[in-house]
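Figure 3 (text version): structure tokens given as input.
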């Protein structure tokens, strides 16, 4: 399965007319906080997966929200000019989900999957989410055999350092959108 390039469309705050932050933004922020709690508080990967499956969105919904936020969480100054296309093959125990991101000097973009990428990272969904939420270091995951990497190992083991936590980005986005709108 390949997730769509743009999974969650977040409306502009200006589209809200009732004087309150948009319900979609509130829902996404609450869902992201729940994911952070599940990832951070689960005793092991099995418990995390069970808790994710118990949410209305399931494992695929968690991946969709986190991967949609990847470009927003990217900090080019931390990447220090590193570039390349990375294919993630994420094992959910029932299927493999493929995601591809291109890292450019000034941004990160979700891109359609092609046969050309510098690095392929195979990883379980629980470990992918732990890395995304900064509960696990990508280099440690590689050294401990939690990822399988082909291609540019430097990018694969360091790219998690090029991002802020997804919860930070969602909170900042909601804050700036509601502040700009006068809510």
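Below: residues designed for each position.
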């Amino acid at each position: 399965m390949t997730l769509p390039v743009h999974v969650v469309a977040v409306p502009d705050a200006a589209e809200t007319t009732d004087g309150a932050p948009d319900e979609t933004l509130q829902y996404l922020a609450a869902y992201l906080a729940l994911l952070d709690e599940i990832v951070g508080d689960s005793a092991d990967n099995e418990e995390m997966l069970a808790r994710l499956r118990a949410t209305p969105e399931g494992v695929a919904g968690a991946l969709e929200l986190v991967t949609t936020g990847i470009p927003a969480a990217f900090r080019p100054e931390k990447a220090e000019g590193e570039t390349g296309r990375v294919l993630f093959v994420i094992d959910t125990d029932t299927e493999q989900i493929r995601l591809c991101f291109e890292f450019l000097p000034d941004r990160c973009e979700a891109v359609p999957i092609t046969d050309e990428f510098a690095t392929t990272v195979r990883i379980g969904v629980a470990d992918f989410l732990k890395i995304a939420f900064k509960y696990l270091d990508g280099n440690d995951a590689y050294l401990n055999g939690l990822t399988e990497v082909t291609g540019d190992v430097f990018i694969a083991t360091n790219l998690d350092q090029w991002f802020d936590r997804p919860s930070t980005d969602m909170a900042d986005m909601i804050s700036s959108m509601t502040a700009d709108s006068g809510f």
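Confidence is low (pLDDT under 50) at residues 1-16.
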